[in-house]
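re: that complex we talked abt at group meeting.

here r the seqs, copy pasted straight from the sheet so there may be weird spacing, ignore it
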Amino acid sequence: MENKEIWIFVFCMGTLFFNWPILGTVKASLPYYLYGAWACFIGVIAFIIFLERRRRG
Amino acid sequence: MFEAWLLSLIVLCNLSVLFLLAYYAERREKEGRSLVTNPYVYSLSLAVYCTSWTFYGSVGEAATSGLSFLPIYLGPTLICAVWSILLTKMILIAKRQRITTISDFISSRYGNSIALSAIVTIVALLGITPYLGLQMKAILNAFTILSGEPAANSAAGWITTMVLGVFAIIFGARRLDSSERHGGLIFAIAFESLVKLVAFLAVGIFVTFGIFGGFGDILSRVQASEFKHLLALGSGSVVTFQEWASLLFLSMMAVMFLPRQFHVAVVENSDTSHVNKAMWLFPIYLFLMNIFVLPIALGGLLLGNPRTEADAFILTIPLAEGRPLLALLVFIGGFSAASGMIIVESLALSTMVMNSLVMPAIFKFRQIKRFPSLILNVKRLIIIGCVFLGYFFALSIGGFYTLVQIGLKSFQAVTIFAPALILGLYWKRGNKYGAIGGITAGFVLWFYTLITPALIRAGVFPIQWLGDALMQSDLFNPQALFGLKGLDKWTHALIWGLLFNLVVYTALSLFTSKREEEERQALFFVESYEPQLLPPKSAYTAEQIEEILSHYIGQQEASEIVESFFQRQGIDRESPSQSDLMRLRDEAEGILSGALGSSIATILFEDKATFTEEERGELSNSIRLMTDSLRLSRHELSEANRNLAHLKEFSENIIESAPLGIVSVDARLQVTYWNREIERITGIRKPMALHRPVRPLLPWIKEESWVLGDRKELVVETPSFQAIKVNFSPFKDPSGGLVLILENITEKKMMEKQLVQTSKLASLGKLTAGISHEIGNPLASISSLVQELQSLDLNRRDDIVFVKESLTSINKHLGRISKTVRSLGDFARISSSEKTTSDIGALIEQTLNLVKYDKRSKKIEFNFENKKVARIKVNPDQMQQVFLNLMLNAVDAMTDGGKLKIELEDFEQWIKIRFEDTGCGMEESMMDRIFDPFFSTKPIGKGTGLGLSICYGIIKEHNGTIGVWSKKGIGTIFEIRLPKEDWYVRENTYR
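got the structure back, here u go
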């Protein structure tokens, strides 16, 4: 995938993970899920930027 | 509790510290040691997004509606993922076009339309000012809680508003700005972001770990309480999934298009690479800012605080727990959040109002003497006006709505810009009429669906009966427009607003035409294409540029700017080139853009009539031609791309479907292509082979064959006994590499072998008559001798002598039979495929002996002189078959007797074997076909037509040649040339 496509994919995945129906499946642990997924999403962005920077040398 | 004067003093101190920080940062920037141009300050400045709404409102929202506060921060985190695409593009465009506000950005995209810019400004002003009021309301509430005095209606409210207005002027309009960027202000905002984060984290830690036993403790207590619905979403909770999704979308748009966010993210960006770091630093800030929202809100409820006062939990909890200093820190944090927003937002709004509404109106008065001070004072008045308008909203409607309600209305308002802005960046056909129509439609729907119900409820709707009728109407009910019911008000307003906005924008763009300038701007915004024109002949002089600048920003500053430009560029002011003057003009235009807006700045420099009417016409024609030719080129390019893609797919299909293994390698012999058939031959899948050294993948190809440079072909045998013909073709490309074509010839080889064997047996059949005669004669002699021996009397001496002679004779005859049978057996055995170094003369001799058995050969004179020639590497069985076929053909051609002369000689690099008979010969017309399979000159039933074809195949495989000369009635000559062994090895490659 090209760089642009990767970011659009990450955005779409994030939108999916923070919306119905996935949120509908998480019940009692919803606050933990939301904050955990939020932290993971930030981690993914940082990791992709790190990889991109390393690729560019 | 704190005294009101003490809190006022703290507020003043806070603002003074900010001012000092801004001043220090500006001084450092002038010295070339900027504190601002780094990604951390940039990311912190983006946190101006977190206002008093975040500080107080999120806690209030969490206490009343549970998790619905979260999408406001999750949305920006999600949109951050595409900032490297979207925000970077906006920044690059804004820098190139010297854009200073979001209204400038939108109007620039649509051909610098002043009308569009004015509409965007009015929408932003009406949509955002209540948001300013929200900040005022938060500050006044906090003031009231800490001092115990009602601040909103007292002098403290007016004074605080005035102080904030004055500080906004100090930060943004203390002089007519000579730049679009405000380094000092950004540094101060970044510092405020740190203060509010520290304050929020402090109170969060106190509540979570000081009062309760951590996150788990609070959440488990809530699960067991009446508030457990606050931890859920969807059915059974306060927030539906539609509302959640709408809030996510609204906040994504808000973080990009709120005027203050556009200002800090786009206008104040000093380096686009900072965006990459902000993409994760800003979300981390949002995450930290929100991590304690739920514990504070739920903790407040668990402590028995009333839900109606939830907006103030963050202050009231520390006060109730006897921590006034912590409450004071929260007050400072909350004030930082609100004041940062007020200063940046009022500055951004005032610049929009100034550039889009005021400047076009007062521009005709630019010749008056004190014009610069006039526009500076107007800008200051606008800032004060914006702040007091906010205060007015705080007083008039602040009591009716929560912080979140007001904030979300502003979010909805800026979402109106999204279609014109985002589609404008990616769709060239979008035009000014579409943008004006779309924004107007969006605004009308926003006002009707969100503001009208609020006005009706507040009792301030101008016509009360009409308001009531609307609310009860099935079709025009602003909260269930066209009968759309069951949605929350944010989703309802978003759906209708966005739908009408998009439809009107698209329809008008499709059905109306664009001006030339719009075409050019669309091209630049969508494809970053800008025609580069040569500098015109009649550029401004440095004095003229200085004069224009001085008229708007003052003589002293204008002189400083021009001097600084010449010093920086190292140019002699007395003799600048045309391109130097164009650069100076560009810089001056950029400076005036910061003060007056890009549209006006452009007009100012165009006003000096740089081009004559004729030149303008020529320029305009040339731009049109360039645009047309570019459009055509693009069309051709995309057509060529499509064809290329089709061709690529077609070629790949051919290569993949071919029953040949195809491998390409680069100059380092690493695999660059590996097709499906080679997967089948080797059992190695494509991903395992690509970019790996080819030699270990095809180990059965000898090392020396991999020498690059020659085109060659060889046959190899794999460990699984597959016979593979490998063709090496070097790439013509100078970068080197090879294409290998591998053909599995195992089956072909097997069939050839069978064919040779069949042919051999057929030849044997032909010899049968002769052979039977050869065996029959000695057998008859043996038989008569045996009969005579049986009748002898062994007591007689003479008979004993006869017996001895007879036995000798029988032994001789048996030897002859044995030799014949051995010759036949040798010939009839199954051929081996091995090539061995052989003596061709001996092979001919053996074959000749076999042919001589044939009784037809009796009439033929065989003449073979076995000369000593070089031994060569051949398959002796196959070679014998060739010789036998040629000899038998000669015998067949000489039914009445004749002569067969066989010559063997060394001829240069060949061994030449010549069979010359004096048979019936052939027609010349048959000569070209005699090596074809199933072609025979013999009568039907006498020959298979395969003999010579097999000979040809065998000789070809030995890299030799076979030729024929014949004349009817004279005879036929066959000549075979076989390469000598040493030459064969060296020259098995061909060029």
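couple things i noticed - The domain at 749-987 of chain B is CATH 3.30.565.10 (Heat Shock Protein 90). The mean pLDDT of chain B is 82.
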